[in-house]
Amino acid sequence: TLKAFIFDLDGVITDSAEYHYLAWKTLADELGITFSRELNEELKGVSRMDSLEKILEFGNKETEFTNEEKEELAKKKNEHYVQLIKKISPADILPGIEELLIEIKSAGLGLGLASASKNASAVLESLNLKKNFDVIVDVNALKKGKPDPEIFLKAAELLNVQPDNCIGVEDAIAGVESIKSAGMFAVAIGPKNQFSTADIVYQTTAELSYNEITERFINR
Ligand code: G6P
Ligand code: MG
């Protein structure tokens, strides 16, 4: 039986995935590395340091920096990002999300957040959605990032529910992989061809349907 929904944040609840992209793009430009929205798809859901490694690889510069310099670069990206998300307000909640959260709550289901971002709590606060969540996984306490299932399993554990009684919602390839390897039902947001392992794919959050998702969950 269905007990809980566990959401990713960036690109699902709000369009902060775009701000992550813009912040990385600024850094990549400074480093003379070609970086595009297409390459950014591989970074969604991926931790800050792992994202930096990937960008350096895109530019064949992975051996050019010491660990200390890499820390500096990651810090710089985060400063760009923190600047960009200052303007976030409840108006930036993506279409369909508030309605879905209300239906989840009225059905008496648990609600968890499984975001890899260290800025997740601040973003949720700016959206005025923090109070809606029963649990928010602390990424600092995790060993492995997405696509490892650890973050979704942790959310289920904190919600005190079994993974197979959970539905995960993600916009990242690594995120859907994380949900599926946690043994959960996966709802993906984005292009259909990108998510062959998801249980349902919606092009945009506006198309999310509580009734359709729960019906498919029951008939899985
Ligand atoms: C999310 C985003 C990634 C981002 C990661 C870390 O998973 O999808 O693009 O790199 O969080 O975010 P942070 O705010 O900690 O740098
Ligand atoms: Mg995301």
Helix content: 40-55%
Number of helices: 9
Largest sheet: 6 strands, parallel
- Bound ligands, each once: 6-O-phosphono-alpha-D-glucopyranose, magnesium ion
Strand content: 5-15%
Main sheet: strand order: 3-2-1-4-5-6
What's the end-to-end separation, in Å? 11 Å
Secondary-structure-based class equals alpha/beta
pLDDT average, as an integer? 97
Order of helices and strands: EHHHHHEHEHEHEEH
Site (Important for catalytic activity and assists the phosphoryl transfer reaction to Asp8 by balancing charge and orienting the reacting groups): 115, 146
GO molecular function: beta-phosphoglucomutase activity; magnesium ion binding
Binding site for substrate: 8-10, 24, 43-48, 51, 77, 115-119, 146
Protein name: Beta-phosphoglucomutase
Describe, in plain words, how this protein is organized in 3D:
The structure is a single chain. By secondary structure, the protein is an alpha/beta fold. The chain is built from 9 helices and 6 strands, in the order E-H-H-H-H-H-E-H-E-H-E-H-E-E-H. It has helices at residues 16-31, 37-40, 48-58, 67-84, 97-106, 120-126, 150-159, 173-181, 210-218, and strands spanning 4-7, 110-113, 135-136, 166-170, 185-189, 200-202. A 6-stranded parallel β-sheet has the order 3-2-1-4-5-6, sandwiched between helices. Strand 2, helix 6 (120-126) and strand 3 form a beta-alpha-beta unit. Helix 3 crosses helix 4 (67-84). The longest helix has 18 residues, at 67-84. It is globular, with a radius of gyration of 17 Å. The model has no long low-confidence stretch (mean pLDDT 97). Bound molecules: 6-O-phosphono-alpha-D-glucopyranose (G6P) and magnesium ion (MG). Magnesium ion binds at residues 8, 10-12, 17, 44-45, 171-172, 175. The record marks 115, 146 as: Important for catalytic activity and assists the phosphoryl transfer reaction to Asp8 by balancing charge and orienting the reacting groups. Its cofactor is Mg(2+). Its EC number is 5.4.2.6. Belongs to the HAD-like hydrolase superfamily. CbbY/CbbZ/Gph/YieH family.
